[in-house]
Specification:
By secondary structure, the protein is of the alpha+beta class. Helix content is 33%, strand content 30%.
Amino acid sequence: MTGAPRFRPATDDDSDACFRLFWESISDLAARTGTPWEGTAHDRWPRFRALYALLAEIAAEWWVAEDAGDGRLVGYARSIERGADRGLFELSEFFVRPGHQSAGVGRGLLERAFPIGRGEVRAIVATGDVRAVARYHRADTSIQFPILGFNGAASADAAGDLRLEAEPITDVGGLAEVAEIERAVLGYDRGAHELGWLLDRREAYRYRDARRTIAFAFIGLDGAGPIAALEPEHLPGILGHVETRAVAIGREELGFEVPAPNVVAIRHLLGRGFQLDPFVTYLMANRPFGQFDRYLGFTPPFVL
């Protein structure tokens, strides 16, 4: 890199370049940790394009770093805010091109996209890259627990004992109940725009007992989650229902992002023959929050 990096706010035109940088960075990390990723940025961009468009729309901060000499993108970072009072401040992405990690790029990006002092709760779904984890500790967060990836073949015979009524959510009116459960489980909801995006791209279900809605789940061709229940005991039946819906929409392989405190889901998935992904992420935050023993995150694991 020639001289100090040049930082600027990102624009929609940067999405493709940011994704390519993400893929280069994450592929380098995966290779170094013995968990290589398959495919190329060109192959995977169609799957991620809609997600990157959403993150650009809801970004609280989105910054890129360029080489001062040739203008090449050498890093980017993006954050989002959630909750009615925007109290959850989450770093959704932070990637620096391999070979530029010690040139002031990462520090400058975090100072702009994830400034200390902002957010009641500061959260990151972090990879195991030790350099990034060290920076996140300096950015007023610490590791709370691992998030385990599970992958397996979905089965049409997985429904099991649901013990709840599963109702499809087909319009935005039903998303108010989803937001209410998110607030009960995590303390924050992801907002009408993001929930509407999920409803457009994934099947959505609410699960009811005799009195009220007590859980929700999303499943689509581009991934599963988020999934949450007011009581962990209902998760096996819900996950079984999600499996059957995955098969119905043509998704043979299925993945889940499961916080380590969610032992009910972990034991259920292991019992169903799902395999642990060796590529582990971590929830980092400035303090404990939420009830993660009854929650499964969004896949792919950019955000909670």
